[in-house]
Design a protein that fits this description.
heterodimer; A: 60s Ribosomal Protein L30, Chain: A; 5-stranded mixed sheet; two-stranded parallel sheet; 17% strand; B: Rossmann fold; Neuraminidase; 6-stranded mixed sheet; 4-stranded antiparallel sheet; 4 helices; 40% strand; elongated
Amino acid sequence: MYNLHVFDFSRHFASFYAGQEIFMKKSMVALLAGISMSALIAGGCANKEAVKKEEAVVPPVAVEKAEPATPIEAVEQAPPVEQVKPAQEEVVSSVAPTAGEKSAVAESSFEIVYFDFDKSDLRQDARDVLSKNAETILKSFAGAKIQIEGHCDERGSAEYNLALGEHRAKSVLKYLTTLGVKAENLSAISYGEEKPAVKGSDEGAWAKNRRAEFVIIK
Amino acid sequence: MKIFLLLLLLLSPVSLYAQSGYIEVAAPVNRQLKLAVDSPRSLDLPPDAESARMVSDVIAYDMNMSGVVIAESRSQQPAAKALSLVDIDFVPWLSAGFDLLVRSEYSLKNGRLTIEFRLFDVINRKLITAKRYLGTAKELRRISHSFSDEILRALTGQKGPFTTRIAYVSTQTGNKEIFVMDWDGHNPLPLTKNGSINLNPDFSPDGREIIFTSYKRRNPDLYRRSLSNTVEVATSRRKGLNITGKWSPDGSKIALALSKDGDAEIYTLDKDGGHPTRLTTNPALDLYPSWSPDGTQLAFVSDRLGKPQIFVMNADGSGVRRLTTSGSYNVNPSWSPKGDRIAYSRMTGGEFSIFTVAPDGTSDVQLTFDGSNENPSWSADSRFISFSSKRSSGNGVYVMRADGAGQTKVSHGKGMYYQPVWSAR
């Protein structure tokens, strides 16, 4: 005999279900056995009554409440780039909060540095580029805050590429400091594979996306 | 009578044999049980055929995905007394080859819904389980999913996950935003709308909050929001990466990768973002933690051996050991809620496939063989795995059973889909 369970979906009560658990694994086998045996008996034993007498079912109604669905407040869909009205936010971290938006200007005075697949070490051509960039910084951008962006191509795991992109940016940063650039004027950020320079799924596109770029932060 | 029983034997495709009342479930001779889901009968006039059909379609879909039975949605629409055991004519169901039958009745008065379901054993003419739900018309779909949970519980002892949700990343608005949908892809809703890059959502254990990484303030920072309001609270805005956040099973901590001390390392934080505790101390890149269900261990990705592999450590950072020993690029660990398997993704020749492995590293099994498949995430009952896939049948969020069977696309709509995660409730 099974109790009739009534669930009020709109009320905030825990289910009483756990207490009613009477079904054990063995019963599943017994159920399957029962069904199959009955089918067998019904088919094979033509002389026997395969149909049992039906019992009237009078289940007692137990009122039970179930958890309602977690209400979701969806944000309204909007076209991209539109800014949302800033919500109240607690800044819990130990980093000083950024004062307003930093506008980042991609600086064409600096050449882009490229990397081999899955690597963050600097090839000789990369070092040559960085020497040139260091000179440019020391000559014309001595006081500027420069952010080095590390990027990856689309292959590989997106999460691992966030870490790899940062490793690239940081190895560029370290090398620049050995060339005389002040460390406090440099910062590193990773965009992983999230901001490709070139669309495409061939080695030509990939090679152009494995890069470090320089951005002046005002 | 004899002729009828003979016909019954001929018509029903039964080829079972029983040895002293015991059915060996693994034997190839056994067939799957067939479940008929009859669409609910309305106690009001006029009946809403579309809603009625939806109820039986939802239950049949859930039960087919479970692999426990073969289910069919039917519309027999009995004239009266759909639930009464004495009055149901089981013969047509029996001769159509069904072993199980769901019948239901509902009433919708002044927006108030009452619906009662009953699951019958057709052959033995017995009531297996019954439930009555009170709610609103809007809740009809979710209530149907809830009865699917109950059918699985009655048949196997463990209830289903069919009222839970999947959060994911989608580019349908042009950039990567976080969305949430029912497990079967219905009711997709946007959770972020900041025009920035939003990644790797994770649910709290009670399913009421999510954490995610966003570049909305020009750095990959970790945010938290409740599903029931739109306020996004900055949980970790430390210098560098604040990525791949994972809520602990008891809800008290968040494990994530921070690079504030150099390279990406695994830390735990309080769920409010304070008290960072560093767990990994290796110069390699360490990220993507996944908690064991008892909260005592973490699986994670590290390239300390050159390329990314999966390791396991105690929740205090001690006892690091290698988990994956096959393949040269293994990522995305996800520990099953049951604790006996860890799902992950392996890249071979540029494409990803999903595997599961025992926590001791043995019994490595490949589950996907088509397209590129990443970011596996388990359902609460460990029966299913959701994942993102790029394959010929389309890019999207897919669901499969834990043994790799039944791979089905559940997401609908344009754009690309990434990093799905399944809620526990």
